[in-house]
Amino acid sequence: MKYNQNDLEEITRIFIKLADKLFEDKKINKDTYREITKRKKNFLKYIESNKRFN
């Protein structure tokens, strides 16, 4: 199944919100939270930079 760029952006944003919720509820530790959000936010930055050039 192929996803378009908007779908991937939305899924990534939902995933970050989920990580925020899990961290607030103390279901994941601080290191895990940082690793998840760092990767996902970098992905969103990459998408934004791609939009500028296209």
Describe the structure.
By secondary structure, this protein is an all-alpha fold. Helix content is 81%, strand content 0%. It is built from 2 helices and no strands. Helix 1 runs antiparallel to helix 2. The chain is elongated. The model has no long low-confidence stretch (mean pLDDT 86).
Structural class from helices and strands?
Answer: mainly alpha
The general outline is: elongated
The percent range for strand residues is under 5%
Number of helices: 2
- DSSP, total strands: 0
Mean pLDDT: 86
- Helix share bin: over 70%
**Order of secondary-structure elements:** HH
Q: Give the distance, in angstroms, between the N- and C-terminal Cα atoms.
A: 24 Å
Radius of gyration: 13 Å
User: Major β-sheet, in short?
Assistant: none
Unreliable runs: none
Please outline the helices and strands.
Layout: H1 5-24, H2 30-53
Short overview:
This protein has helices at residues 5-24, 30-53.
Keywords:
81% helix; 54 residues; mainly alpha
